[in-house]
Write a structure and sequence with these properties.
InterPro entries: GntR_C, TF_FadR/GntR_C, Tscrpt_reg_HTH_GntR, WH-like_DNA-bd_sf, WH_DNA-bd_sf. The protein has 231 residues and is mostly helical. It has ten helices and two strands.
């Protein structure tokens, strides 16, 4: 029988840091004690503390700001997190990720059509207006706007867990998503499909919003499959 791995000092310290955040009532953006104060509080060396802090930073639980301090991260309350150790995705795995988006995002678009408020819809329109101003080669800005649109649409559905799932999937294959902007010059097509989805959401047409989101993601998958074929 294999021996059960014992928790290391860094493991224990990571848990104690999370307990400090929870019991202290800290919220995302709140500043935490300094490295020196934490070392004294937990009676550990600075290198041990820094290892625990790096672990927490990798999952978004804390944010280390150079010259400013340690802050509670925006992901501290998330239930679903992208793998911080992910390096490269195999072709088959990428297509599976897209299949997952095709299953998840269309129903969320329908839910957004039913639940989104006017202010939220106005914000979503601002995102697309920003994307429309970056169709002439500003691919980094366009990519950010496109991903913001999909994340925001999932958020408007009103289910925080499913929103986090979509956010994690987008984070995992972000580099591949940026690459397809270079293929077939499809920037305009992507933008127009996003506009059509938003129009359906604004019209409270849940069935149409779901149909358009599914068609849009299927187009993305087709482009990626084409890129993956041996030349």
């Amino acid at each position: 029988m294999s021996e059960v791995a014992r928790p290391t000092l860094s493991d224990a310290l990571t848990e104690r840091m999370l307990e400090l955040i929870r019991t202290g009532g800290h919220r995302p953006g709140d500043r935490l004690p300094s490295t020196r104060e934490l070392s004294q509080r937990f009676a550990v060396t600075t290198p041990t503390l820094r290892e625990a802090l790096r672990r927490l930073e990798a999952t978004g639980a804390i944010e280390l700001r150079h010259g400013s301090g340690i802050y509670v991260g925006a992901a501290i309350e998330r239930l679903v997190l992208p793998n911080p150790n992910m390096r490269e995705i195999r072709a088959a795995q990428l297509l599976e990720l897209l299949d997952a988006r095709i299953v998840i995002e269309p129903p969320l678009a329908a839910m957004a059509a039913e639940r989104a408020g006017q202010e939220e819809l106005a914000t979503l329109k601002q995102v697309l207006d920003g994307a429309g101003s970056h169709l002439r080669g500003e691919d980094a800005e366009l990519h950010d706007a496109n991903m913001t649109f999909h994340r925001a649409t999932a958020r408007l559905a009103g289910n925080s867990v499913l929103h986090e799932v979509v956010d994690s999937l987008l984070t995992v294959h972000g580099p591949e998503q940026r690459e397809i902007l270079q293929i077939f010059d499809d920037r305009r097509r992507d933008y127009e499909e996003h506009v059509a989805i938003l129009s359906a959401i604004e019209a409270r047409d849940a069935a149409r919003a779901e149909e358009l989101m599914r068609s849009h993601l299927a187009d993305v998958k087709t482009v990626i499959q084409h890129r993956m074929r041996p030349r």
